[in-house]
Write a structure and sequence with these properties.
The protein has 73 residues and is an all-alpha fold. Helix 3 packs across helix 4. The protein is globular. The protein starts with a helix and ends with a helix.
Length: 73
C-alpha cells in the first residue's frame, strides 16, 4: 500500500479530527507526529508493515494515556 493511500484512508476513518485540525488532528489522535503524517501523505512509496505496526502501538499508548487523564477518582 502506498503511504499516501494509507493517510487518505486515515482521513476517511477520522473525519471529525480531520475537519477540526486537518492532519494534525489525526496525528494527535494516533499519537504520531504531524511531520510523520505529512511525510506519508506526500510519499508515493510503499508504507512498510513496521511503520503501520508502530502507528498502532503509538495509538494504543495514546489511548491509555488519555483514558488515565480522564479517569475520575
Amino acid at each position: 500500500m502506498k503511504a499516501s493511500d494509507f493517510v487518505n484512508d486515515l482521513r476517511k476513518k477520522f473525519p471529525e479530527e480531520y475537519k477540526k485540525n486537518g492532519d494534525r488532528g489525526i496525528a494527535e489522535r494516533l499519537g504520531i507526529s504531524p511531520q510523520t503524517l505529512r511525510k506519508w501523505s506526500k510519499s508515493g512509496s510503499e508504507i512498510e508493515s513496521f511503520q503501520i505496526t508502530n502507528a498502532f502501538i503509538k495509538a494504543q499508548d495514546t489511548a491509555v494515556t488519555v483514558s488515565y487523564t480522564h479517569l475520575i477518582f
